[in-house]
Amino acid sequence: MQIVVATHNEGKLVEIRRILAEGLGSDAGRIELVSAGSLNLPDPVETGVTFQENALLKARDVAARTGCPAVADDSGLIVDVMGNAPGILSARWAGRHGDDAANNALLLAQIEDIPDARRTARFRCAAALVVPQAERDADAGVHQVASETVEIGEMPGVIIRAARGEHGFGYDPLFVPDDQPARAQGLAEPLTSAEMTPAEKNAISHRGKALRALVPAIERLVR
């Protein structure tokens, strides 16, 4: 069975493929994950005002166009002292979508005077699975929705004052999760998300939690 991941970011596809493979076990071999980008599908405008709305918007669009089940996620950073910003605007906080360096620099400048104890934050992810009707709607010209599922995952932590680590993307170099891998116990400082291995990050990440919660719904599709 082919499932389309509603993303044009091949790095995210790799991460999602790894997380779902761990959760699905032997059933993983029965699923082919492909990205919307590899199918040259357009990237829909994210008009939702919550992570859930945007995840569903993207998954519905892909499912309607392809007739294949679609998985999408929408995630971002929520900084408590900033009133839950940058939130759904996380990827374009500094103005241009996906400019990680500019987004990180702006965030650090905005909370520069905030004491360490008040720099609490959390990543939140909404992951959606949309299953379309098998037949294309003759009038609408697309596949209508048969079912949809949305799950939420969060990873709490704190924002540090200078970036550390070379892995991950986005705000990972500035974010120290509350949950730490076992090897962090012998280190002078807790690890940022960008200092963790993919396996360590996936075990605790907001995206990992949300996608693993989708596994039962995906299992029902392949079985």
Automatic annotation (TrEMBL):
Binding residues for Mg(2+): D74
One GO-annotated biological process of the protein: purine nucleoside triphosphate catabolic process
EC number(s) recorded for this UniProt protein: 3.6.1.66
Cofactor: Mg(2+)
Residues that hold substrate according to the record: T7, H8, N9, E10, G11, K12, S75, F169, G170, Y171, D172, K201, H206, R207
Domain of life: Bacteria
Presence of the UniProt keyword Chaperone in the record: no
Annotated GO MF terms: dITP diphosphatase activity; ITP diphosphatase activity; metal ion binding; nucleotide binding; ribonucleoside triphosphate phosphatase activity; XTP diphosphatase activity
A Pfam family matched in the record: Ham1p_like
Residues forming the catalytic site: D74
Top EC class of this enzyme: hydrolase
Keyword annotations: Hydrolase, Magnesium, Metal-binding, Nucleotide metabolism, Nucleotide-binding
Known partners and oligomeric status: Homodimer.
Similarity annotation: Belongs to the HAM1 NTPase family.
Protein name per Swiss-Prot or TrEMBL: dITP/XTP pyrophosphatase
Native source organism of the sequence: Bifidobacterium scardovii
